[in-house]
Fold Flagellar hook-basal body complex protein FliE.
Amino acid sequence: MEIHSLSQITPIQTAGVAKTQTPADVTKDFGAFLSDALNQVNQAQVDSSILADKFAAGQIDNIDQVMVAGLKASNMLQMTLQVRNKVIESYQEIMRMTI
């Protein structure tokens, strides 16, 4: 059995490791994420409304498509409201903490 000294071990390469982000960078990324999420919820609501209008005008015969779009928009809005409620609840809890 052969024992090698530690000097023969090569150092770990950090070329593929991302640099540490600053709090400002993280805030920008999180803000962009929230903005994109809200835009997606809004777009789902708009798409649902357009499909409902087309169905009412007789341009679409498939009610399944209209119902799925409406339920998708409704679920996305409910999830957004629940996240908002949790954020507000967390903020209130932090404000009640004593320093």
Q: What stands out?
A: The chain has a mean pLDDT of 85. DSSP finds two helices and no strands in the chain. The helical segments are 23-57, 63-96.
